[in-house]
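<given_protein>
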Amino acid sequence: MWERFQRSWDLVNACMGILQEDKSLLLFPLMSGIAMLVILVSFAVPVYPLVHAISRSEHSLNALAYVGLFVFYWVQFTIVTFFNTALVEVAMDRLDGREATTGEGLRRAWERLPIILAYAAIGATVGTLLRFIGERVGIVGKIVVGLVGFAWTVATSLAVPVLAAEDVGPIEAIQRSVELVKKAWGEDLIGNIGIGLVFGVFTFVLALCGVLLFVAALIAREFPFAALVVLIFFVAICAIALVQATLSAIYAAALYRYAAGETKTGDIDPSLLQNAFRPRT
């Protein structure tokens, strides 16, 4: 367990090196988060009356709700995929040793927008179907649906780098991702799990300290300080989420390059990526 954690930490440090060289990469998940917040608010206001009506009930409204859910998923996946494609494009330029700007990444994503829309529609369809099935089965069925969803996530884990690097359609991007995953992905999924573990520890420690300070402030009746603790905690969590999302995208770019047979991995030690690949015999 410690050995896996050490590899994960080394990988995070290697990806962090690229991020330190180009902190503008943080702009992509930031723009994605802002766009998602705007979309969430714009959907929540008109959809609330519909949700309230559904809770009281007819099947026709349920069907309409699933249409709304599909549209929400579609917009959400489009936004996330668009900005991740732009981020991965810049990250891969960095891996090639070339300078790249935020604008260049966004231009590449804009060029691929029709493909991104189609790819997001596929993801939205899968997500809606899994939600539909999950609400109509028992506990065992929910577990199976969860496993199917996890398998879909793994299978499409390299689809965004494919969209950024190759001129293929949405179906071909998924097929290419599956091909690369089958070729080299290991049992441990050490990249995403490792980065998630490291930032999970950071978040847990931060949350623990925040709760202790907040409770202490309430006991001491220092309400302005308690409000300040909440504000600092919120900003820190957002910052951690931005860094984690950016590092995950950098890792995905390097992972794609390695799986595709590319030799350039920038400042990332190829041996670290080799640990993430456990080819099946």
Remarks:
- Residues 10 and 240 are 18 Å apart (CA to CA).
